Amino acid sequence: MNTASTPGMTHRLQLEEVRLRLQGRELLRLSAELTAGEILCVMGPSGSGKSSLLAFLAGFLAPAFEASGRVLLDGHDVLALPAEQRRIGLLFQDPLLFPHLSVGGNLRFALPAACPDKSARIEAALASVGLAGFTERDPATLSGGQKSRVALQRLLLSEPHAVLLDEPFSRLDTALRREVRALVFQTLQAAGLPSVLVTHDPEDAEAAGGRVVQL
Amino acid sequence: MLLRAAPWLVIGLLLAPVALGVGLTLLPAFGYLPVLGGDAFSLTPWRELLAMPGLGRSVLLSLLSGVLTPLLALAIVLMFLAGSSGTALERWLRRLVAPLLAVPHAAAAFGLAFLIAPAGLLSRLVSPTLTGWERPPDLLIVNDPWGLAMMLALIIKEVPFLLLMALAALPQCEPGPRVTLARSLGYRPAVAWLLCVLPALYPLLRLPVYAVIAYASATVDVAMILGPTLPATLSVSVLQLFSDPDLSLRFQAAAGAVLQLAVTALAMLLWRLLEVLAALAGRHWLAAGQRARGEAALRLVGRLGVALLLALAVGSLLALLLNSVAGFWRFPDALPGNWTLQTWSRALPEVLAPLGNTLLLGGAATLIAVTLCLAVLEAEGRQGKRLAPALWLLYLPLLVPQIAFLFGLIVATEFLRWTPDARLVLFAHLLFVLPYVFLSLSEAWRHLDPRWTQLATTLGASPWRRFWHIRLPLLLGPCLSAAAVGLAVSVGQYLATQLPGAGRVPTLTTEAVALAAGGNRGIIAVWALLQAALPMLGFALALLVPRLLWRHRLGMRSTA
To answer: Listing from the earlier edge strand, what are the strands of the sheet with A39-43?
Structure first.
């Protein structure tokens, strides 16, 4: 139901000798290969360049940075592509549901234009996270956990081939954090998406259960 | 790509006419204008100009108005903010500022005249009980020889403008933490504000302040309504020369326009000197470490000043309203003896055509200006860098006295044998509407959380889809506010309508100013009120539409 991409296809993300520099100073140097459903956890103090790594992969790196290396997604070089064509999804610290759109409108925005039966897919996506019937709701009226779930479904509907997570649980309180974390990790793994998680919370790293890179 | 060229297109659109206009004012000022038989350069226009009786006085008036009114207005605004920043009073005033700003200069000037004239509302309120006046006193309050009434009207209009600009820039200066820190060191709040917030705020206010100087030193409509007559201010004298049927006076008028340019430049130079002196004094104050001196005075003067100007502005509107519905109104009576709608019903048929012109010009100029500004901002956002130094040029039309380059533009159109028509007027309006729209819109646009755009991008949205579906709706409120500002600016244009239209494109403003000489108070009041109502309606719509549109979207309340 919530296949994030063409069924049966497994995705692979390769970082080859990725180096980021700011004013001549090297921020990070990283090589990694992620298979379907694998979560790479990048940890480090603030200023260590972990957010810049995500910005680099997503295509928003500020011009002040110098970057080198190759990033291959399913064997294709994504750095040559504009950000919107990279098929790399992103979850921020905040759910960031577009405030001017309904819950359904937020999901519809993520669906590729060519997608048939959009309404049915939106309904199904909401039902899969226990939010059936929420299509017309104002996102501002949702609870924190509900917003996180809508944001996750929105990400999946955009059919990414890889996912970046920018401390997505740091703003949630402890109880909710565990619940949302479990849901996000399970969903990403079930969808077979290679993911890069940036965090400074050791619990995140532990729950991700994958490789940990310390910057 | 066309979008990438947008900033340069807009800068060219604004820069070229100003440069051309000033250039083509300079030529006839030195005797060269072949169309009128001026084939050789000479100083005759200057000799004739300098021989005009009262010219020195005209220059002095314009200079005084250009330095004193911004000084007083800025002092009031800063003292008010120092004493009341972050208080409920400030928040309350914030809501009043936009409608006050919306009242065009001409309407405000007429209102003030009806309030303070010898037979005006104020004099009626205190007569005969306090003054003993049984008939209007023979005082020259309006059109006084030193232009005090004119300067008061300018200050009434400048204070809301500077206040709005300051309030918009203030969050960037982090007034809260700065004042808190200074207070923890023992400084009283208003003193702390002046010493720690103002130095960060003033650079952001400099451009609006210089625009105010340019306007105040060269205003035409306010000076025609409230200013001195013999001699008039420099800008009015130049316009009179320009409008004279004797075309040979055009050379003299051009010289006058160049003189106006010099006077405005001198006013700005004097202001720069004041800036330096103020900075020195401020450093001295800081070094002295005085923590409390002046606190009470600062608070009092700021609040009193704003309260007084507010009262004058509201009183002016009230005076207009009363005059428009007054039937027989004997002098010392505070209220009319009988009320009538006759003035309105008599004026309305004549109002329709100018009202239509005003709406069409304002609507078209605003639409074009908002579109161009969005294109510039969108191009800036996509290239990921500010064009800050170049974009300063956008404000050029606000910094050069109107008469100094509109004059040359008219000469240019006469060269090209373009007949003055509504399209020329529209273009002239655009020169002033565009900078103000950009001034209103750019901060909000640049401060939109970049994550909204990034998020939309990672969801696969193309640049245009991000613009139409995310940025534009999220910033609908600021866009509509900017449009309301644009409409207000267009509605208020006098010179930019009168000169390019050669008087053949009547608007509410040109007709109202033309009525000034006639002196029928009721009719003038009707026109002035209509002139004020249009921009106010614009601001009301800019507030209402987002509320209505987002009534089911709680998250849009703060931005709308």
So the answer is: A88-91, A162-166, A195-199, A39-43, A212-214
User: What is d(CA B4, CA B468) in angstroms, rounded to the nearest whole number?
Assistant: 17
How many A-B residue pairs are in contact by the CB < 8 A criterion? 74
Q: How do residues B125-168 score in pLDDT, each as one tens digit?
A: 887 778 778 778 777 778 888 889 999 999 999 999 999 889 88
- Tokens representing B446 are 């640049």
Q: What residues does A16 pair with on adjacent strands?
A: A70
Nearest by CB to B455, from A88, A92, A138: name it.
Answer: A92
Handedness of CA B193, B194, B196, B199 (dihedral sign): positive
Can you tell me the distance from the alpha carbon of B181 to that of B172, in angstroms, rounded to the nearest whole number? 17
User: Mutating which of A73, A84, A96 best tests the B interface, going by the most B Cβ atoms within 10 A?
Assistant: A84
The rounded distance, in Å, linking the Cα atoms of B282 and B284 is 5
| Backbone φ and ψ of A42, nearest 5° | -105, 120
pLDDT at A1: 40
Whole-Å CA distances, B385 to B5, B390, B435: 14, 12, 20
Structure tokens at B294: 């002046």
pTM: 0.90
SS3 of chain A: helix, strand, coil, percent, to 5: 35, 25, 40
Residue of B nearest to A60 (CA): B454
Asked if A83 and A58 touch (Cβ cutoff 8 Å), the reply is yes
Structure letter (DSSP) for residue A151: H
* Count of helices and strands (H, E) across chain A: 6, 9
How many residues in total does chain B contain? Answer: 560
DSSP alpha helix (H) spans, chain A: 50-58, 103-110, 118-128, 144-157, 174-190, 202-208
Neighbours of B143 (CB within 10 A): 19
Complete edge-to-edge strand list for the sheet that includes strand A76-77? A25-34, A13-22, A65-73, A76-77
pLDDT at B382: 84
* A72-76 average pLDDT score: 93
